[in-house]
Amino acid sequence: MQITANNPALRSWVAGADHSEFPIQNLPFGIFQVAEGSKRVGVRIGEQVLDLAQMAAYGYFQDLPFATSDFSQDYLNTFMKKGKLAVRALRNRIAELLSTDNKSFQLANDKHGALIPCANVKMALPVQIGDYTDFYSSKEHATNIGIMFRDPTNALLPNWLWIPVGYHGRASSVIASDHPVIRPKGQIKPDDNADPIFAPSRQVDFELEMGFITFDGKALGQSISTAEAEDYIFGLCLFNDWSARDIQKWEYVPLGPFLAKNFASSMSCWIVTLDALQPFACTTPDQDPEVLSYLKFEGLKSYDINLEVAIAAPNFPEHTVSKSNFKYMYWNMAQQLAHHTVNGCNVRCGDLMGSGTISGPTSDSYGSMLELAWKGTKPIQMPDGTERRFIQDHDTVIMRGHCAKNGIIIGFGEVRSKLLPAN
Ligand code: CA
After folding, report:
1. 394 catalytic, yes or no?
2. What does the alpha-carbon distance between residue 44 and residue 115 come to, in Å, rounded to a whole number?
3. CA of 201 to the centre of ligand 1 (A)
4. What CATH architecture is 4-124?
5. CA 1 – ligand 1 centroid, Å
6. How far is the C-alpha of 64 from the C-alpha of 352, rounded, in Å?
7. I want to staple 365 with a disulfide (CB 3.0 to 4.6 A). Which of 12, 165, 218, 324 is the partner?
8. Over 80: is that where the pLDDT of 110 sits?
9. CB 58 within 8 A of CB 114
10. The pTM is what?
């Protein structure tokens, strides 16, 4: 099925949509509510949200494999259960209805009011996440961490160039943008102490990541190949995988991170479909040594998505601290999914896969404070004259992302979270 919604010639009758981050070629899905009303599935167009429950009730999707109840839900999962082709057909239909060629819906909309201004809605966590897996797929990030904490001459561990390294994270603490994060407490072992102490983390950090959300995968025991992977990916979001570096340093041996990572992970509220990103597909970094056969792939498997991180504080507006790009990732999503399932592990509708911190090649493109301030040795100057080595109480971390090509911008919106003092 063709992705007609991606046609760059399409223009929308929704005022302001064409040159926004949410033009007709984007149409990301999310969960919204108006005041204290019930949650529903919406699609973003310009500064408006299209209420899909209302659209379905009016019969606009009658010939598509969806029921009105699929859109009157607290999460996108029920609708995602219908799979890739159903979602593609729906997105094509919505593009058709919102296009300047479609005067009849424009007239109908005046009557029905299926478009709601963003200012009047509250966005919610879009997906009921079953399992959350976090990868470690940026070579620059893994190298920086290796230089800082192990051996500068052998920064990458021997398995890193062979395996898309990952671990199982925690789904219960994945929260939506705009939810505050509370500084975690835990065991910390200061360098000059013989024993650990129990205290609020002193090294709360962000991790600039992107997450992808899966459709239902295959049955337990079966694998998804790199060639099939895209059929199982619904879309992408911005993802701030909050980390407490001092807790992490003490606890991570031998089983990896635990409480340093599971106190909060923040995701953006609009899921941009993989379909919408197709025009921005690009090559991935060369992989040397040659990967094992199940990790080989054909075609363009990465995406050119500009990313940035800013910090805002009560006494200064946001200040950009990093600019990176999703395309720097060494291991792509198809390889991650192929690796995740190669042993027969099943993925399910609504699983979340984090990319791992996305660091670029230059020191202003690193995806964490740990790297930007280089383990605290190069503090970052803020507009009010203060410095940051890590994130302070009452700081807000804002991540944004967008693709741009031929005058069309596909935006992800933002993931914004404020760090509150420890309880
Ligand atoms: Ca992470």
Report:
1. no
2. 9
3. 17
4. Roll (2.30)
5. 35
6. 26
7. 324
8. no
9. yes
10. 0.97
Question: Which residue, chain included where needed, has tokens 């060639």?
Answer: 227
- pLDDT tens for each residue of 173-229: 999 999 999 999 999 999 999 999 999 999 999 999 999 999 999 999 999 999 999
| Cα(222)–Cα(341) distance, integer angstroms | 7
* CA gap 297, 300 in Å, rounded: 9
- Cβ atoms within 10 Å of 33's Cβ, excluding its own: 15
Domain with CATH 3.90.850.10 in the chain: 132-420
Q: Compute, in angstroms, the gap from residue 136 CA to the centroid of ligand 1.
A: 7
CA distances from 115 to 54, 110, 179 (A): 10, 9, 25
Count the helix, strand and coil residues of the chain and give each as a percent rounded to the nearest 5: 20, 30, 50
d(CA 26, CA 23): 6
Q: How far is the CA of 138 from the centre of ligand 1 (A)?
A: 11
Pairing of strands 352-354, 316-325: unpaired
Distance (Å, rounded) from C-alpha 275 to C-alpha 325? 19
Spatial CB neighbours of 171, under 8 Å, sequence gap ≥ 6: 129, 130, 131, 132, 352
What's the 170 CA to ligand 1 centre distance in angstroms?
11
**Catalytic one of 19, 112, 141, 179:** 141
**Under CATH, domain 132-420 is a member of which superfamily?**
Fumarylacetoacetase-like, C-terminal domain (3.90.850.10)
pLDDT of residue 112: 81
**Centroid of ligand 1 to alpha carbon of 371 (angstroms):** 14
